[in-house]
Amino acid sequence: MRVLALLLLLLAISATAQPQKDNFYDDRIDTTAKAPPKETPRTYSLPFIRVEGNRFVDEQGRTVVFRGVSIADPDRLERLGRWDRRIFEVLKNDWNANIVRIPVHPRAWRARGEEAYLKLLDQAVEWANELGLYLIIDWHSIGNLRTELFQHPMYNTTKTETFRFWKTIAEHFRHNPIVAFYEVFNEPTRYNGTLGRMSWEEYKQIVEDIIYIIYAHDRTVIPLVGGFDWAYDLTYVRESPIAFPGIAYTAHPYPQKRQPPWEEKWEHDWGFVADTYPVFVTELGFMSADEPGAHVPVIGDETYGEAIVNYMEKKGISWTAWVFDPVWSPQLIKNWDFEPTTQGRFFREKMRQLNPRN
């Protein structure tokens, strides 16, 4: 009897000591829209931006359209001795940009180290805050995040590294209105099958995991999500949009992605999304075939430039032109005196015309 009683006692203790069911995926984070905190750790020059319907709006509910540029990776610029406030001053005061996109290459993030790279980004935030510019932080990889095969070694990463990157960034820039957008993965592509298979549903799951991590740390930032075909094709959003509120979609509609006339094709492939969700064209640009670094799909001229800007203005779509660098192409500048190229003159004039002057 004593043995039986002891066994029953041990069973009872074991039952009560069993861990609770892991309900991580059932314990939803609060995805309801939240106002940004009334007080932030420091003084910022710009208001928080949020999503309202298919628009970006400020804290007073006023529509905001962003028009700016992408710069080169800060790691590269620092190694060249070109990472300084002057870039941001020229973009704000001469080009009249209101936002700057900062690409972070996985290889550079690893090589420089997390702490040292964050110092570069902190400098960008400081300069942007002083000048009244918003920022996009872009995880600048190209390839298949499911198979972890990528187009070039500089883009090599893993799902785990990508998750950790966004955890680090979201913690570090929590409740910072200057860092308004996180582009969660630059250009998803299966590269005609050479990088393996990946369905939209598989990619969507990875993206939603990233957004879950970001939102667990900060709900004042707006995640940006690109489609397949090097962030061009958003047709999957018709049937299966990202299952989180407060996000926006990105497109990279370079001139040779489709043959002219472009407008109906843009509308079918990605522009229709702007009727329901905000769309941010985070890369666009053109160059002639005889310019250094010319390659498919960026060869074009001002005919494309006028068409894409007119289309985006009609749809209320924000944009950042690629790229404010004299080497990476299509270049917006010829040299570090910031002399604009043909496309640089074009986009500088558009920003001067379209962006409100502070």
From TrEMBL:
- Leader sequence range is 1-17
Q: Which superkingdom?
A: Bacteria
User: Where does the record place the Glycoside hydrolase family domain?
Assistant: 59-324
By its UniProt entry, which InterPro entries does this protein fall under? GH, Glyco_hydro_5
GO biological process terms held by the UniProt record: glucan catabolic process
Q: Does the keyword Transmembrane helix apply?
A: no
- Protein name in UniProt: Glycoside hydrolase family 5
Reply yes or no: does the keyword Cytoplasm apply. Answer: no
- What family is this? Belongs to the glycosyl hydrolase 5 (cellulase A) family.
> What keyword terms does UniProt attach to this protein?
Glycosidase, Hydrolase, Signal
Organism of this sequence: Rhodothermus marinus (strain ATCC 43812 / DSM 4252 / R-10) (Rhodothermus obamensis)
Which molecular-function annotation in GO is an example for this chain?
A: hydrolase activity, hydrolyzing O-glycosyl compounds
